[in-house]
Structure formats: C-alpha cells, structure tokens
Amino acid sequence: MSIGPSRSTELLPRARSNVSGWTKTSCLIAILMALPVLGIASQTILPSAGLWTHLVANVLPTAFIETAILLFGVAAVSGILGTVLAWLVTAYDFRGRALLEWALLLPLAVPTYIIAYAYLDILHPIGALQGAMRWALGYASPREFRLPDIRSMTGCILLLGFVLYPYVYLPTRAMFLTQSANLLEAARTLGVARRALFWRVALPLARPAIAIGLSLALMEALNDVGASEFLGVRTLTVSIYSTWVTRSDLPGASQIALLLLFLVVALVSLERWARRKQRYSTGTQRSQPLAPMRVEGLRSLGLFCLGALPVLVGFVVPALYLAVEAYKRWKFAGISDRLAGEAVNTLTFAAIATVATVVLGMVLAYAARLRPGAVSALSYRLSTMGYAAPGTVIAIGSLIILASFDRIIDQAAQQWFGVSTGLLLIGSGAALVYAYVVRFLAISAGSIDAGLSRIPLSLDHASRTLGETASRTLFKVHLPLSRAAVATGALLVFVDCVKELPVTLLLRPLNFETFATHLYGEAARGTYEEASLAALAIVAIGILPVIVLSRIGRRLPPQGPISR
C-alpha cells in the first residue's frame, strides 16, 4: 500500500518534533555534566581562610614538581614497555606468544592503589621476601641489608608504569597489526635491515597510537590518589584531598583542582599538537598484514620471559599475594558481615550509576545520529569531558553544585512543610552516583556511538517510511543491532565504578564503605591482611573488561609466520 501525501505531510512535523526533543535532551545532559567544572570555577573566587598564601608558598611548588616528575617517569616506563611489548607479539612468532597477547592486558585489572598496597607489604623491610634474601646472603637484620625503600618517587613511577603500560600496548599493537607489510617490504628492498624496521618504519607510523595510549596512561596517573599517598609522593591530586579533608579548606582545594584541570587540558592539547602534521593512509590496493618472524630455541624462551616479566610484576605477584593473604584471613576469622555490606554497597551503587550512564550515553549518541551538526557535536564533547578530569576534580565540583541544591531543597521544605531535609543529595549517595556518571559517561557514549555507526542509515529511513517514530526506531531497530556495543560500554563503566577510589572516598555518605574505601582505610592503618579480601574482589571484577579487550584483533586476517 502506498503512502499518500497527506500521510507523509502528517509525519514530517512528528519527525521534526522527535529529533528536536532528542537534541534538547542532549543539550540538557551537557549542561548537567558541565556543572562540576562551573562549580569549581565559582568556588575559586572565594577566600580560602588565609591558607592560599600557605599553599602557594609551601604546598603547590612541591606538588607541581613531584607531579611533573611522576608524569614524565610514568610516560617513559609505560611508553617503552607498551611499545616494545606490542612489537614483540606482533613482529615475532615464538612459543607462548598467543598467551602473552592477552596476558599482557591483565595489569589493567589491578587498580594503581592496589598495586601499591600489595608491594608495600611484599617489599616491607621485615617482610618474608627481604627476610629470605637476608637469610640466603647471610645477613642477620635489616640494618645490615635491605632493598631500596619502595616508598619513593622511583618506586611510584615503576609501579604505576607496570600497571598502566597496557594503555599504550593496546592501541600500539592494533596499529602494528594494521600496518601494511608492503611498506616494510619496500623498506627491506631499499636496504633497511629487519632489526632496523622497528626504528625506521614501524615506530614512526605508530606514533599517533603511542601518543593516544600515553595520554590515557597519564590521565590515570593524574587521577591516582591512593598509590601516590601510600608511596609518599605529594602530587597535586593528593594535595587536593589533604587540603579539603585535613585542612577543611574547600576554596583552596577548588583552586588546586582548577590548576590540575588546566594541566589536564595542557596534556590533551600537547598530545594533539604533537600529532598535528601526522597523516597516515594506505593505497587503494589490498594491503598484506605484517607476517611475524619465527623464532626457535633459547631466543624463543628469552622473548617469552621478556614479555612475561611485566605480567608477573603488574598482575601475577600482587594477585598471588592477595589470594594468599585472603586465604589466611578467611582461615583465621572467616568472611565478616562488614565485607558483605561493602559488597552490597559497591555493586549497588556501581549498578545504578551504570544504568544511568548507559541511558544518557544512548541519548547523546542517538541525538548525534539523528541530527549531526554543531549543536549535537558540542553537546557530546561537553558531556564526555569528565573522563579527562581527575576524580578529585569531579568530586569537588559535584560537591559544590549538589550542596547548593541541598540548601535550596532544605529551605523550600522548611518554608512549605516545616521540615528540614538536610543533605538530601549528598547524604543519600546521589552525589556519588552523579559523580560516577560525570566521570564515566564518555565510555558508554563512545561505545554506543561506535555501535550505532555500524548500522546503515538506510534502516532508519526504512523504519521512518513505515511510520515509526525516532524513539520507536531506536527501540525496535538500533538497540537490538547494537546490544553488543551497549553491553560492552555497560561492563566497562560498571568495573570502573567498582575500582574508582578518589570520587568514592570524597563523596561517600557517612558510615558508607565500599571495597575501595575499605582497602584505602586498612592500608593507611598498615593492617594489610584486613583489606586483602576486598582487594582480591576488586581485581576479580577488574578481569572482566580484560576478557573483552583481549578479543580485539582476533578477527583480523590470519598472519602466517615466516622463517628466518
């Protein structure tokens, strides 16, 4: 049956109305997500009770210098590890290579504060490891022999680097896998030795991927508060926390947070400036993927050991330590009711935040699909900028905004009903959920947008021609076809909410504990065995996205190894 003119003219206003509604909703989401930054900016103009002069003179210089040193060191360690390991599993075929390809992602399951917590006990001067070393070397006490203290800038750089290198490894390996073997063969024809291909051809082509990975690793290093504080490094993030909690100086903490936000913007701008003239394109002919070189014998064993070392340091050793300590704690006192309550708190708030984040991410991605343009693009960017900001910055901004709303609600309730609501949003945990959404909306929106981009626009046109609205098209066409992308985004958001420490530590209600805050408190007191079960639970949950990420690249064309 054909559609008459009256039917079509009747549908056009409905279509415009639906599209306009989606766009307006995306703009509203952008405003809500940008409020924490506006809150910080408004708070910085307030006096800081005479402490700002003290901060400028005594806190900020040290914090800024140590933050810069930490970022430079983490960039060097994670950049070298990630790039070398990506080339190792791409350019060489050796026994155990398939295992390393996914095992090298396992440190992603260990949050930075857990790696510091574990190694503080493992490498303690009177711990089992150093005790065994002294016994083997014939020393009697730590005064005669002890390893360098892990509580140092060097220790912090090494531990963070061995945890964050997968951020560089993953995109760099993907770039190496997609590089055309034709380019490498052309370089060989021009006289470049195979060992020099990495420096002369592969590495320059992979610079954009390395830059992206390094920016993500540095963002995570900036967001860290637990590991830096445990290891005695006074970063800007730690200074924000101590200024707010210890000194009760919210304006001063807001000013430091704004400075940290400027540093994040500078890092992102520097990364884009470094890649401003870099272009990469392939020819129209079908390119052949890089074929790995087969390696046998002792050299094969050496390559496997080289690739396994970061996995041992970044995952296996701390995971085994947590498992042993958790078993000891369970044998001694069982699993306490307190841990069960923390599990409920952790999973409940992470689930609520995940649902909200996925729904808002779907609105942003679908609004951009329905009406692409400057308005939808700006809304998308404003809504997802929270992922680039450290958790302490988001937490302070959220507190400022929601505390204002709490005051307005309380005054209205007293005026109208004679009842005080108190800290309704902050005390109920709504502030925590809101900060989670601001922090991780970019993950769900990006994943859903990638899933929607694979659906042809012809399906949208066909659905609208059959009389469906934009909303019904979303539920009947797009959601079924993009459910894998939605599920992936939801999983990543859920795990990040479970692992998030700074936001949870600063915005949790009174007498509210999660796995992350419980671990932080026990580690700060030095009672490591009490936090082992919570830490092990976080690591177990963190393995879930590693399983998803390990599937990347498995559908690429097979690469046959070549002999030497």
How many runs of DSSP E, i.e. beta strands? 2
CATH class category of the largest domain:
Mainly Alpha
Please trace the helix and strand order, writing H or E for each element: HHEHHHHHHHHHHHEHHHHHHHHHHHH
Radius of gyration: 26 Å
Provide the domain count: 2
For the biggest sheet, the summary is: 2 strands, parallel
Please describe what this structure looks like.
There is one protein chain. With 564 residues, this protein is mostly helical. It folds into two domains: 11-43 and 335-508, MetI-like (MetI-like fold), CATH 1.10.3720; 47-276 and 296-332 and 514-555, MetI-like (MetI-like fold), CATH 1.10.3720. The chain contains 25 helices and two strands. Strands 1-2 form a two-stranded parallel ribbon. α1 packs across α13 (250-274), α17 crosses α19 (430-453) and α24 (515-525) crosses α25. The longest helix is centred in the first third of the chain and has 41 residues, at 51-91.
List keywords for this structure.
564 residues; 25 helices; MetI-like fold; mainly alpha; 1% strand; disordered C terminus
List the helices and strands and how they pair.
Layout: H1 5-43, H2 51-91, E1 92-93, H3 97-103, H4 112-122, H5 128-137, H6 153-164, H7 166-178, H8 181-189, H9 197-205, H10 207-223, H11 226-230, H12 236-245, H13 250-274, E2 293-294, H14 297-333, H15 337-370, H16 374-384, H17 391-417, H18 424-428, H19 430-453, H20 457-465, H21 470-481, H22 483-499, H23 502-507, H24 515-525, H25 528-549
Parallel strand pairs: 1-2
Helix pairs in contact: 1-13, 1-15, 1-16, 1-17, 2-6, 2-7, 2-10, 4-14, 7-10, 10-13, 12-13, 13-17, 14-25, 15-16, 15-19, 15-22, 17-19, 19-22, 22-25, 24-25
